């Protein structure tokens, strides 16, 4: 798989893959397109901004593709609308639903993994709305009692559970059948939480925050903190890497344009980094393969990345260590360069200096 990209007319805020990872939808203020992903390029098949019949006088904050039906896309808008698009139709009929239940900007939309007509949204009005595509307005309202809901994600492990993260640093777990009160709530971060992602295999939830950390929570019973990753910038997006239990991708909100892949067991140095974007990356989607993923960015691009092209920051780190015992002795170790076998004396003296007591 090769790394390639396609430029756009404006910044891209979000992307989503269809269920078999062959097509990608992207959305932004001036962008709303669908591409087929070929071996070495993206081929445009639909440009909804180009249609004269559609009223698109809003910025698309998020896009979600139905995981059961390739015909349906949902978008979250800055004007508070949640729209559902039917790609088999033409003109105005493409916009099958235009929900106007939210009072402020909608930050996230997420289709249910197994229920084809179910959709949830999270908004800056502090609520989450649960939609049935066969009904003209929300069928349930969930009140977070926070200033803004930044992300909502259905659990892949329980068809009735979804998570929501908020500006006040909290995580809420809800049962879709019980909108009157959340099942669990806990403080996860010292600043606003911008994103969350369920692990595809374990009952782990990753959360990302303005406090420059990514945290991994085990939600088997009571929430317990398993891992904390320390980053150089506020994190806006996280996505678990498929088939790699301990790997997660992240995008920063400011400063850092790289997409970093972390091994959660090594919290300070990324396992791999991708530096193609020239402005902040706005999303990551794995193509069902641990070696290939897509990303969108504020630099007006859509990329496909091959893991073969990653830089490896850990390999450039200094392999040095120091240890102190209870007697006050110091042990110091460092990497030594290769020395020819016929220079045994130098080799031995270097080895002693490298791993000796000082």
Automatic annotation (TrEMBL):
<keyword id="KW-0479">Metal-binding</keyword>
<dbReference type="GO" id="GO:0005829">
    <property type="term" value="C:cytosol"/>
</dbReference>
<keyword id="KW-0853">WD repeat</keyword>
<dbReference type="InterPro" id="IPR020472">
    <property type="entry name" value="WD40_PAC1"/>
</dbReference>
<dbReference type="InterPro" id="IPR036322">
    <property type="entry name" value="WD40_repeat_dom_sf"/>
</dbReference>
<comment type="similarity">
    <text>Belongs to the WD repeat WDR24 family.</text>
</comment>
<dbReference type="GO" id="GO:0008270">
    <property type="term" value="F:zinc ion binding"/>
</dbReference>
<dbReference type="Pfam" id="PF00400">
    <property type="entry name" value="WD40"/>
</dbReference>
<dbReference type="GO" id="GO:1904263">
    <property type="term" value="P:positive regulation of TORC1 signaling"/>
</dbReference>
<dbReference type="GO" id="GO:0016239">
    <property type="term" value="P:positive regulation of macroautophagy"/>
</dbReference>
<dbReference type="InterPro" id="IPR015943">
    <property type="entry name" value="WD40/YVTN_repeat-like_dom_sf"/>
</dbReference>
<keyword id="KW-0862">Zinc</keyword>
<feature type="repeat" description="WD">
    <location>
        <begin position="142"/>
        <end position="184"/>
    </location>
</feature>
<dbReference type="InterPro" id="IPR019775">
    <property type="entry name" value="WD40_repeat_CS"/>
</dbReference>
<dbReference type="GO" id="GO:0005774">
    <property type="term" value="C:vacuolar membrane"/>
</dbReference>
<keyword id="KW-0863">Zinc-finger</keyword>
<feature type="repeat" description="WD">
    <location>
        <begin position="186"/>
        <end position="227"/>
    </location>
</feature>
<protein>
    <recommendedName>
        <fullName>GATOR2 complex protein WDR24</fullName>
    </recommendedName>
</protein>
<dbReference type="InterPro" id="IPR001680">
    <property type="entry name" value="WD40_rpt"/>
</dbReference>
<dbReference type="GO" id="GO:0034198">
    <property type="term" value="P:cellular response to amino acid starvation"/>
</dbReference>
<dbReference type="GO" id="GO:0061700">
    <property type="term" value="C:GATOR2 complex"/>
</dbReference>
<dbReference type="InterPro" id="IPR037590">
    <property type="entry name" value="WDR24"/>
</dbReference>
<feature type="repeat" description="WD">
    <location>
        <begin position="99"/>
        <end position="141"/>
    </location>
</feature>
<keyword id="KW-0677">Repeat</keyword>
């Amino acid at each position: 798989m090769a790394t390639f990209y396609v430029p756009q007319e404006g910044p891209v805020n979000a992307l989503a893959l269809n269920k078999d990872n062959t097509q990608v939808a992207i959305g932004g203020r001036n962008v709303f397109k669908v591409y087929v992903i070929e071996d070495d390029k993206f081929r445009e098949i639909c440009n909804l901004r180009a249609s004269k019949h559609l009223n698109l006088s809003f910025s698309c904050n998020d896009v979600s593709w139905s995981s059961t039906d390739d015909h349906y896309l949902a978008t979250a808008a800055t004007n508070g609308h949640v729209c559902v698009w039917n790609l088999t139709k033409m003109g105005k009929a493409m916009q099958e639903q235009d929900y106007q239940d939210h009072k402020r900007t909608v930050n996230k939309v997420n289709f249910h993994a197994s229920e084809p007509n179910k959709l949830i949204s999270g908004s800056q009005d502090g609520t989450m709305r649960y939609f049935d595509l066969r009904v003209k307005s929300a069928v349930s309202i969930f009140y977070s009692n926070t200033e803004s809901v930044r992300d909502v994600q259905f659990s892949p492990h329980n068809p009735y559970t979804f998570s929501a993260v908020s500006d006040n640093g909290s995580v809420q777990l809800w049962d879709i059948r019980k909108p009157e009160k959340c099942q669990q709530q806990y403080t996860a971060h010292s600043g606003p939480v911008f994103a969350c992602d369920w692990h595809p295999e374990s009952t782990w939830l990753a959360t990302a925050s303005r406090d420059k950390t990514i945290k991994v929570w085990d939600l088997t019973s009571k929430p317990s903190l398993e891992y904390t990753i320390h980053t150089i910038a506020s994190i806006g997006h996280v996505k678990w890497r498929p088939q790699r239990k301990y790997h997660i991708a992240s995008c920063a909100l400011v400063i850092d344009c790289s997409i970093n892949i972390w091994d959660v067991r090594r919290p300070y140095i990324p396992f791999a980094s991708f530096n193609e974007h020239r402005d902040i990356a706005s999303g990551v989607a794995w193509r069902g393969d641990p070696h290939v993923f897509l990303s969108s960015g504020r630099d007006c691009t859509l990329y496909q990345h091959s893991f073969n092209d990653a830089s490896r920051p850990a390999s450039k780190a200094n392999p040095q260590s120091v240890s102190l015992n209870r007697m006050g002795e110091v042990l110091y170790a460092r990497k030594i360069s290769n020395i020819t076998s016929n220079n045994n004396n130098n080799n031995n003296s270097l080895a002693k200096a490298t791993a000796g007591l000082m």
